[in-house]
Give the backbone structure.
Amino acid sequence: MQGLLPAIETRRARRALSADSISRGDVETLLAAAHLAPSCNNSQPWRFVVADDPNVLAKVKEALSGGNYWAKQAPIILAVTSRRDLDCALSDARDYFLFGCGMAVGNLMAQATSMGLIAHPIAGYKPELVKAALEIPETYVVITLIIVGRPGDVSLLSDKHRERELGPRERRPLDQVVAWNRFSFEDPPAA
């Protein structure tokens, strides 16, 4: 098997961030990498809103959940937003805008890792507050916030997060998430 790309192999959901600034050029490089992701019919459904102004950034940080305290150090927060009608709508409720945006975020994270930066997507925030802070229309979905920063001081993290930050990267064995030729997973029943 050919080796993995270093930016994929070493990427982690790091939380220890420095408040040091990141140049606009570096942020634009991350966004360019995201924008090169594939999408259904080349529709490019992603819309990134960059929060870097201190006043706007403070408003976005007010929307973060308590568990995302560590993200308040970030000098940049990116909101990934889109709408269902900006991409292919397929049978069986397959709203491809979510998939396309996810691929764009994957590109962005790999690029950030290769640049020595942290790009950590989060789900713990109040979308209505983010929309208000960034003037995102109600018709859009804030899919994720990406916390962007440079590596920082691990001692500022909670015990739980420090343990995760310094511990081994945990992944399920590949044979628990891959089946060959037929679905053979023993997942718990759907709720």
About this structure: Residues 6-176 form a domain with the NADH Oxidase fold (CATH 3.40.109.10). Residues 63 and 114 are 29 Å apart (CA to CA). The mean pLDDT is 94. The chain has one domain: 6-176.
